[in-house]
Amino acid sequence: MISDVLISGFLLGLFVLALTAALSPLETLSWWAGWTEDELGDTAPPPEDGAGRRERYVVYLSGVASISGQFLLPREKAFIRKLEDRLPEASILSDVFPYSPSGRPLLSSPRLFEQLWRRLQFLRIHGRSGLMSRLVNIRNIFQVMVSADHRYGPIFNQGAASVIETALLENGYRLGSNAPVAIIGYSGGAQVALGAAPFLAARLGAPIDIVSVGGVMSSGVGLRYIRKLHHIIGSLDKVERVGAVIFPDRWKAAAYSDWNAAKREGRIDIRHIDDMTHTGVNGYFGRLPGKHGGPSNAERTLKLIADMIES
Question: Which residue blocks in the chain are alpha helix, DSSP H?
Answer without folding.
Answer: 2-23, 26-33, 37-40, 74-86, 114-125, 134-148, 153-170, 189-204, 240-246, 258-264, 297-310
